[in-house]
Specification:
alpha/beta, eight-stranded parallel beta barrel, two-stranded antiparallel sheet, 12 strands, globular
Length: 321
């Protein structure tokens, strides 16, 4: 089933569906942790489940003779495999992420072919973050610098056009593509208007829906949605949601995600900053109120960033859906 169609149907009916995102298991782990995170959320009828894709890291190893050796490793491989396992076990549509960072066009093509063989026809196309050892994002020498180029590659593959050229007689993939949007502007954009212009290019290239970066101020999302509509972006816009959970989020979330913490939320957290349980409860209650308001505003899907920890998400979903 095509996720973009599920989202469009929810929008047309004036409904609001529940969806969430998981991390693939750490290398060496099995499926138990992932399935254990999903099980408490199944009762809320998720429209789909996203599975993230993680950049490579450089490991430095000191050899017995004192020399150092560097090699590339991934802490969380297996995005495509765990996506197929989730879909098989639960019958819920899954959306593997695919990124530009660290991948060549050939790597991307191979991953897409694997997805197609496994019946995974939904994908979230992202540039991805810079690697930990980079000052700024640096594309693979044979890869893409921007998400729009990734969208174009996927759409070309749907037409039977591969990296090394067109295949005369071939099975055509039918990937449906989602892309990211940033209500508070992408860190690399010079302005929100410029960021929305780049977003429209991704939609014009073939993206069928948008899922936003997390935010805590609904007015920023609603203003962003209006700006997108005025710019001619008509595809559904899904709200990305993450409950505030720990006091250090006051510093981490603005720094890493460029997400502003509303004054009222920050004030309440600081009043209870030495009480982790109270901080988590404050974040949960804020998120419930935020979700109810977004639901009333006609947002077709609320997409929860879980980091594979779903206890609080289940509480929020029970209060909202």
């Amino acid at each position: 089933m095509i996720v973009a169609d599920l989202i469009a149907k929810s929008a047309a009916e004036g409904g609001c569906r529940f969806a969430f995102e998981l991390l693939p298991p750490l290398k060496g782990d099995g499926t138990q942790g992932v399935f254990g995170a999903i099980d408490p959320l199944v009762e809320f009828d998720p429209a789909y489940i996203d599975v993230t894709f993680h950049r490579e890291v450089m490991h430095t190893q000191t050899l017995a003779d004192g020399r150092t050796e560097r090699h590339v490793a991934r802490r969380r491989p297996g995005t495509v495999g765990i996506s197929a396992a989730i879909r098989s076990r639960y019958g819920i549509e899954t959306v593997p992420h695919i990124i530009c960072g660290g991948l060549s066009r050939y790597d991307i093509e191979d991953a897409l072919i694997d997805m197609d063989f496994l019946g995974l026809h939904n994908v979230l196309a992202l540039r991805g973050d810079k690697s930990p050892d980079e000052e700024v994002f640096t594309p693979h020498p044979q890869g893409h610098a921007h998400a729009i180029d990734l969208v174009r590659q996927i759409m070309a593959m749907n037409r039977g056009e591969f990296v090394d050229g067109e295949v005369e007689v071939c099975h055509h993939s039918e990937f449906s593509i989602g892309v990211a949007g940033y209500p508070e502007k992408h860190a690399d954009a010079t302005s929100l208007d410029e960021d929305i212009a780049r977003l429209k290019e991704k939609v014009d290239a073939g993206a069928r829906y948008i899922v936003t970066q997390l935010f805590f101020d609904n007015s920023k999302f609603l203003d962003y949605r209006e700006r997108c509509r005025k710019a001619g972006i008509t595809v559904p816009i899904v709200a990305g949601i993450k409950p505030f959970a720990v006091a250090r989020h006051l510093e981490i979330l603005p720094r890493i995600f460029g997400t502003a913490i509303p004054e009222a939320l920050e004030r309440e957290v600081r009043l209870h900053i030495d009480n982790p349980k109270a901080v988590r409860e404050i974040g949960t209650e804020w998120c419930i109120a935020q979700c109810r308001e977004l639901k009333a505003a006609g947002v077709p899907v609320l997409h929860f960033y879980t980091m594979s920890r779903t206890e609080e998400i289940a509480k929020i979903a029970k209060a909202v859906f």
